[in-house]
Amino acid sequence: MVPIIITVVYFLFFCIFFGMRSRKNVADGKQFFTAGGLMGWVAVMCSFSLAPLGGGHTSSLWQQAGGIGVGAAWWGIAFGGTMVPIFMLWLGPMFLKLKVQTFPQAMGKIFGPKMKVWNSAVAPAGWLGIGMAEIFGTAMVVYTLSGAGSGPLNVTTCVLIAALLNLIYVLFAGMLQASYMNIINAIVLILGSFVAVFWLGAELPGGYQAVADSYVGRGLSGNMSLFSFTPDVLWGVLIPVFILGIFSVSSEQKQYLPMLSARDDAAIRKGAVPGGIINAMSAIPFVILGVVAGGGHLANVNSADPMTAVPDLIIGYLPPVMVGILMVALLCALLSTGSGVILSTSHVIYDDFVRPVSKKKHTPEQQKMISRVICVVVTLAAAIPSLFVEIFMNLFFWCFSLSLPIFICYLIGMLWKINRKAAWINCIASLAVNCWWTFATPSWCPPQFSLSFYPVFVVTIGLGIILNLAMPGDKGMLKQIKDQG
Asked: Residue 332: is it exposed, middle or buried by C-beta count within 10 angstroms (0-12/13-18/19+)?
């Protein structure tokens, strides 16, 4: 009961407090999604750093860590060290030069309105996949708080509660409220998770040394070294995060909401380095939890099920107050990302579908109402399918593979050459390869290249270079903008 009280009080207090504070600044749908351009650098940094965390840095990592060890931490380290600063210093400000509100609109401005429709139709499928992972991760928190299987709630009920929590997080006042929450959440996430991990070391029989001994005894001493670059770590974590972190995540609308909400360019760039550190550090405690739960030496932890092993560990070896603190820290990551997915997907649906096809202009009050209704629909669309996914890291890779060709075509069009035919061929061919590798992986494919993003990356880079060298096109968009003054 103590962990539940801590968690409920934390989120209800801050959601209502910040929601009431920011509600008066939300006049219409645009301000609901982009905070009216009121966010300073701390809010932008925290919102952006927490936006890609969620299940990618928590539940999916502890699933991996139980099998490959602490090398799973390279997901967070590489992401925070590359994607966050590159985006905040370069990609985000570059996007703002287009003076658009959504990433599909950016693609439409470069390659024409049909490409905008393609992006608006295909990309949200990937974003919903990420939303599924975030809602299920939140459900695992609820599952843990209810007793990790021994309590009254089953997984389906926990998923529905998780969907409701995500809605509460965003419905009061949209992006502005979420940005206030993210500042507090960034602090609680880092402090709470690290304190819980240090506390756990004192509670475990034999401490962390016993965990190390259990891996050594099973011939898995490499699992305890961060610098053991096994094929699983190299091809399953390190290389994917460099490619996908920069070339896939950067096409997601949720990464651009903090940019669109910033007061100016300085509010975006100033937090690049500390934002990267926050993003990287947030993954470490959950990798440690996954390694401990996967050690196989704790009698009351079912290490055979990596997803529920960590809840077993938390309930079994932490006092109620620490369980509550750790669950709040975990929810800080999951709800920050989940709410970002809901807001950004809803933003695209409203701005690129509902508003253009509407026969009459919406009043500000109608904009806010429609925006909130879309948020509810998007949440349900992510929550229900999440009940049928077993391994979320594979889901992440599939979603990222959908975004990969879109962003690479965008970069080519921004920096080099605009050729609409080349972009269309690239996007369609890459989507076909993604579906082929996902649903019918060729038998001749080596195991380390079975993830769909590898062939998608090769195809989209190869076609991007070959087609644009062979076919004439217009100057890149940045050169056009510069020429226009």
From this structure: buried
The partner residues of 39 in beta bridges, in order of sequence, read 262
- Continuous segment of H or E residues that includes residue 64: helix 59-68
DSSP designation for 386: G
Nearest to 97 by CA among 315, 415, 336, 335: 415
Taking the C-alpha atoms of residue 119 and residue 276, their distance in angstroms, rounded to an integer, is: 28
Tokens of 309: 């092993």
Q: Which of 259, 351, 317, 307 is nearest to 136 (CA)?
A: 307
Distinct helix (H) and strand (E) counts, the chain: 27, 2
Give the Cα separation of 398 and 395 in Å (integer).
5
> pTM for this one?
0.82
d(CA 480, CA 442): 43
Angle at 253 (CA atoms; ends 405, 382), nearest 5 degrees: 95
Three-state SS at 97: coil
Instruction: Give CA–CA dist 120/435, Å, rounded.
Output: 18
270: buried, middle or exposed (CB in 10 Å: 19+, 13-18, 0-12)? middle
Contact 132, 395 (CB under 8 A): yes
- Give the angle 440-425-408 at the CA atoms, nearest 5°: 85
Three-state SS for 418? strand
Cα–Cα nearest to 128, from 367, 372, 350, 384: 384
**Enclosing H/E stretch for 179:** helix 175-203
Residue pair 190/39 in contact by the 8 Å Cβ criterion: no
Please state the φ and ψ torsions of residue 262, each to the nearest 5 degrees: -75, 150
Q: How far is it, in rounded angstroms, from Cα 54 to Cα 255?
A: 13
Q: In residues, how long is the chain?
A: 485
At 270-297, the pLDDT tens digits run: 999 999 998 898 889 989 998 888 877 7
Q: Which residues contact 473 (CB under 8 A, 6 or more apart)?
A: 417, 418, 419, 422
Q: Assign a CATH topology to domain 2-393.
A: Sodium/glucose cotransporter (1.20.1730)
- DSSP H or E run through 21: helix 2-23
What are the start-end ranges of the H helices in 392-447? 392-415, 420-439
The predicted-structure confidence for 101-135, as pLDDT tens digits, reads as follows: 999 999 999 999 999 988 888 877 777 777 887 88
Query: According to the model, what pLDDT value does residue 399 have?
Result: 77
Name 364's Cβ contacts closer than 8 Å, sequence gap at least 6. Answer: 27, 28, 29
Cα separation, 250 vs 247, whole angstroms? 6
Instruction: Report how far residue 300's alpha carbon sits from residue 306's, in angstroms, rounded to the nearest whole number.
Output: 14
